[in-house]
Design goal:
The protein is an alpha/beta fold and about 350 residues long. About 40% of the residues lie in helices and about 15% in strands. The chain has a seven-stranded mixed beta sheet with strand order 1-7-6-5-4-2-3, with helices on both faces. It has a four-stranded antiparallel beta sheet with strand order 8-9-11-10, with helices on one face. Helix 3 runs parallel beside helix 4. The mean pLDDT is about 95.
Length: about 350
């Protein structure tokens, strides 16, 4: 079943309240390198520096270790690293008290913090821990949903992983209209047939936005947009890899489907700055990209590369040419201002 709202943060707020009422528990576990919205609860659930604004205002949200830490590594072997991260999560569940935890809430693939792809065994392990302790697994699909990663939803990249609830926005209407929602298992939805979900939204189920969502999703399915996205992935991945290999200011690129980006680097090869800091090089790159006709999101030390899902190979190549030029200029800018 589904409940509809207007934006991603609203959908996540709804999922938080429904999870707490359904389980009778109050703690929500989420990752540090995450973003879930700008309302008080969703910002508290967020792990990146934007959550600092709510640190003293709200309780019940607990951060868990990431499978991809910023300042250290769980190990070079991806599967062993995922196991270590899961052992740390299990320990935290035991120490927090499983009977107090309503949900583990996470992005299937971290979006706003740099398109971080966990090993499949990590997501499978989270699913297993949730099953073991009666904790709901809730996946935030606001950025990944409706084809962005080459699957209809991000969690579909991890075999056997089906969440108890998932939230969505953005792609459901192609951003033509503000629509979001929460999808859930029949068991949870049936519970709310006779129990109020403790949530309401002014424009929930507005006929115009729902009609737009229906038309968009129908187009996505009829034209197999996720498959097309997967076909475009190598072109984008190869292009961004070329930028990284050529420019000092590009540290690392990550791509899945048409979700990707580049971590910005200083001249010594480390991150240009921390996510909460500003740097003149970012402003310079943003200005030059705009002047060259390429619009994208730069947040902290990460430049997003998330083009329209109907982009062509030639259009991707044009974008890569612009990036190549602008990163070359960023190399010179950093050298001149060191």
């Amino acid at each position: 079943g589904f409940i509809y709202a207007s934006g991603g943060a609203e959908a996540n707020e709804c999922a938080i309240r429904m999870a707490r009422r359904y389980t009778g528990r109050y703690k929500i576990l989420s990752r540090y390198r995450s973003y879930h919205g700008g309302t008080t609860s969703t910002l508290a659930m967020t792990g990146d520096p934007r959550t600092w604004a709510t640190d003293t205002q709200i309780t019940g949200f607990v951060k868990i270790p990431d499978p991809f830490p910023f300042s250290f590594s769980w190990g070079e072997d991806a599967e062993k690293a995922a196991k270590s991260a899961l052992l740390a999560l299990h320990e935290q569940i035991l120490m927090e008290g499983p009977e107090s935890i309503a949900a583990i809430f996470m992005e299937a693939i971290t979006g706003s913090n740099g398109w971080l792809l966990p090993h499949p065994s990590y997501m499978q392990g989270v699913r297993a821990l949730c099953d073991e302790y009666g904790i709901l697994m809730i996946v935030d699909e606001v950025m990944c949903g409706f084809g962005r990663t080459g699957k209809l939803f991000g969690f579909m990249n991890f075999p056997g992983v089906v969440p108890d609830m998932y939230t969505f926005a953005k792609g459901v209407t192609g951003a033509f209209m503000p629509l979001s929602g929460v999808g859930m298992t029949d068991k949870i939805f049936d519970f709310y047939r006779t129990n109020a979900p403790a949530y309401g939204s002014t424009y929930s189920g507005h006929p115009l936005t729902v009609a737009c969502g229906y038309a968009t999703v129908k187009y996505i399915l009829d034209n197999d947009i996720p498959h097309r996205v997967k076909q475009m992935e190598p072109t984008l991945a190869e292009g961004l890899a070329h930028i990284v290999s050529k420019h000092k200011s590009a540290k690392q690129a990550r791509v899945i489907g048409l979700a990707g980006g580049i971590d910005l680097a200083g001249l010594e090869g480390d991150s240009l700055m921390h996510m909460h800091q500003a740097h003149p090089g970012v402003a310079f790159l943003r200005r030059r990209l705009r002047e060259e006709g390429l619009i994208t999101l730069l947040r902290g030390h990460h430049m997003h590369c998330t083009p329209p899902l109907i982009i062509s190979e030639s259009e991707i190549s044009t974008g890569i040419e612009i990036l190549d030029k602008c990163f070359g200029e960023l190399d010179d800018f950093l050298e001149e201002h060191k």
